Amino acid sequence: MAKKIPLRKCILTNEMHPKKDLIRIVVTKEGEIFVDPTGKKNGRGSYVVKDLQKVENARNKKVLEKKLGRDPESLVSVYDEIIRLIYREDIPKR
Domains of the chain (ranges plus CATH)? Predict the structure, then answer.
């Protein structure tokens, strides 16, 4: 029997993707927002596709600000961290 692959919906594109192909963003009860590369931190999780072009488009259209109901200044570092993680994964593993 084939192992079931967990799917999650990207909040930028509304498309379903395997969980391992996404980056998790967490909003805590205290209102903190941060990127969770481990996928295990406490808080409400939202997922973003690991696609540089889609993340840049979302940044320009302020998609995360609308979806998470936050001001743009609080999400600058979140966008930067997502982009940094995407670049890190593009480096071939030796």
Answer: 7-90 (3.30.1230.10)
